[in-house]
């Protein structure tokens, strides 16, 4: 287990499940949990998958949906 995954698992263990949303990493398809924003808010951020350590852009919605994308690179 990587240090990133161990840190992620320890954090998830401390957060109430009702405050989390789940999405599949667009790179490895592993399940990832993230904080759910308060009602009326939408959060976006770059994030690192704790499983494959790939970067993705995520948009977390207050209804529990999370959209995750792999950022395009400039050529």
| Number of strand elements | 5
Number of domains: 1
Order of helices and strands: HEEEEE
Shape: flat
Distance between the termini: 34 Å
Point out poorly predicted stretches.
none
Physical arrangement of strands within the biggest beta sheet: 3-4-5
> Quick one: biggest sheet?
3 strands, antiparallel
Kindly state the mean pLDDT as a whole number? Answer: 94
In percent, how much strand structure appears in the residues? 35-45%
Query: Count of helical segments?
Result: 1
**What is the helix content?**
10-25%
Rg: 13 Å
Structural class: alpha+beta
Task: Give a description of the structure.
The protein is of the alpha+beta class and 75 residues long. It has one helix and five strands; from the N terminus they run αβββββ. It has one domain (3-69). Helices cover 16% and strands 37% of the residues.
Key descriptive features of the protein:
75 residues, alpha+beta, two-stranded antiparallel sheet, 1 helix, 5 strands, 16% helix
SSE arrangement:
Layout lengths: L2 H12 L5 E5 L6 E5 L6 E7 L6 E7 L4 E4 L6
Antiparallel strand pairs: 1-2, 3-4, 4-5
Summarize the structure.
This protein has a three-stranded antiparallel β-sheet, with no helix packed on it.
């Amino acid at each position: 287990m990587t240090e990133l995954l161990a840190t992620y698992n320890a954090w998830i263990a401390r957060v109430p499940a009702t405050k989390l949303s789940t999405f599949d990493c667009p790179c490895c398809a592993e399940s990832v949990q993230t904080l759910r924003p308060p009602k009326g808010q939408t959060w976006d951020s770059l994030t690192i998958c704790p499983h494959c350590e790939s970067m993705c852009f995520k948009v977390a919605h207050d209804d529990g949906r999370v959209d995750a994308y792999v950022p395009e690179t400039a050529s």
